[in-house]
Amino acid sequence: MNVYAKIIVFLSFLIFLFCKQSQETLPQIQNAVLNLQTNSFQIQTTLPLHGEWKFTPGVFTDVDTKDTILISIPNTPNWNQFQKETIEEGLGIGTYQITILLPKDELRLAIHLPMIHSDCKIFQDKELIGEFGSFDEDGFMDRMPRVFSLKPTNRPQVTLTFYVKNRFYHFGGIRIPPIIGTEEEVYKSIQVSILQEAILSGGLVFLGLYQLGIYFTRKKVKGSLYFFLFCILMFFQILSTGSQSLFLVIGKKMGELVYRIDLFTEYSGVIAGLFYIHCLTKEYINKKIIYGFSLLILIPLFNTIFGSVRSISSYHFYVLCLIIPILILHFYLIFRYIQDKRSGYIYLGLSILFLIGAATNDIISTLVHRSEPMYLNLGLLLFVFFQSLFLSKHISGEIVSAEIKFKDVLFQLIQSEKLSSIGMTVTSVAHEINSPLSAVILTSDSIRENISDFFKQLPQLESISKKSFPFVYTLIEQALNQENLPTGIEFRQKKSQFLKDLENNEIEFSEQYADIFVTLGVKEVPKEWLQILHDSNSKALLLLTEKIVTILQGTNAIQSSANRAIKIAQALKNFTHFDPKAEIKTIQLSESLNQILTILQGSLKHGIELKTNFVNIPPIECYPDELNQVWTNMIQNAIQSMNGKGKLNIEINQTILKNNPFAYVCIEDSGPGVPKEILDKIFDPFFTTKPIGQGTGLGLYISKQIIEKHKGIIDVKSTKGNTKFIVYLPYSQKPNLEENVA
């Protein structure tokens, strides 16, 4: 069973429990008598006065007359059928009466009148205990719920008599049963009702304000505006039909205003809901039908504002008859919406279906003149519940979308900053690549010439004898192993020494041999070489050796230059590569820094004294591409701050911060420093001290975002002539640290 089915089953069970009427266990008024002698008010703390009341139409009396009858409340719709024909429908007076057999326990009982739409006086054994409204013709319409406490008595029973006069409402008499219970529990039930109304109305206001925000931020989406209006109208509908909430604000004498608000919000809420649903389902129905129904409701809607209370109540029955087909239209549109599996169809569809179902039940009950059961508040509660689920899913979706968009924007910023970085280093990088390529070209030309000369001289060269081969091999090996060619002074000194030794041993071609020995990196002339140098073919052997060494040295130079070009190209490739969906990798920070230093070497070797202290520390887990951007931004800033001349120190080590292990990278330069007044602003986006066109102001901002993404810390310390940027990066697992506490 999927999650939606579970939700539906759970809510259906709740509705069943809420709606189930356990009338068998509640005391009922039978033949105008309510027996509470066996009722303890512990299981059912309050109970409605359902059942057979005595009713005497047309008079106020505390005794039965020939016209006294039994009527069932709430099943009897109103007293219109019992009044005299000469009296205008709905008007008139009447007397309701019941006898209550009191519980054996001495309890302080109270009567709660939720709403009767009429003026009323309540008597307990012929003694007035409460009044609702006013019997004066110019009195105000009272609809505020009221509680009247029963007076203590030693008698086993009391008789309650209700004198009721109707001056306003089309349907007269007691239609909504009063509620009896202990005084404490009655007031407690009212407080609970007020709390429920506050929660429900607050939920509606929240939903409405959210949709209003969407309306103003999402290109004026009309559906959001209609939803906002519907929620606000239902907010006032709850308050106007609730326990006491609205009366606590405007006062108890504003019953007529509350009644107008009640019906105004009911009618206009139907229109707002219809327009909201139509915005979701425009393709299912012609908008002229929507406008037609709305215009029909506008007439009684304006009547709730300008008409008399009598006319409002008279038209109410017919308006409800008109609302029924509108609700059917609501149901059809939402059913189509769910059937097509539109966006949010589960939560949105269920919320509106429950609301329509509850509203339909209440309207039909009113049309058949029944005051119970009413489920609009339950429907609104389910509406708020499902809409909250819908909005939470929608908001979470938007948060995820926003995070994705933020990552995309950050990716674009990093790429933009990388292009800016590459633009500033393109000259030096081009020079770094051109240098090894030029060496390759020149060396290859030299090798080609040497090989050509070698083949031209080949007929004159003699074969190397077994005796002479060690001599030739040693010369070649020494030449290839020498690291640096001697300078001018060293060359002359070594040549002078070789020339002296060779002349002392009467070696022919001494000066030419001395030049060759210095060039080939010979450190000294062994005695066994002297015999070979006396041979007639010694000159040929030395020339052959020199040619071989020159060719081999050329190939080494080509290989070295090619490797350097490859290293620079690979560093550029790693630097420019960025994958927003990249996974965390384990790297050595020294490798990451060395890549950047390779790229920026052209900017570093002219006037920048670079010192590195890369301690061998455990690797860290990170996003390497992003950290490369951090190092590039900081090293470039350091180079630019020194105007290409100064000292740059880079250190990699580890430390402990707040009892947690961190790796850190410190980039220190000898530039002029960052002024104190702007030190707090350097990480702000678009803040830069560089001239227009030479900086985006995003480098340090992006660096800070990247470091914070890695749960790290970036710190800056700056004085005149010394600026340090220190980046602390946490270890995911604690390595063994040496004593190096910051």
TrEMBL record:
SUPFAM superfamilies: ATPase domain of HSP90 chaperone/DNA topoisomerase II/histidine kinase. It holds the Pfam family HATPase_c. It catalyses: ATP + protein L-histidine = ADP + protein N-phospho-L-histidine. Its EC number is 2.7.13.3. Keywords: Kinase, Membrane, Phosphoprotein, Transferase, Transmembrane, Transmembrane helix. The chain crosses the membrane at residues 198-216, 225-251, 257-277, 289-309, 315-335, 347-368. Residues 558-733 form the Histidine kinase domain. GO terms for molecular function: kinase activity. PROSITE patterns: HIS_KIN (PS50109). It is an enzyme of class 2 (transferase). This is histidine kinase. It comes from Leptospira levettii.
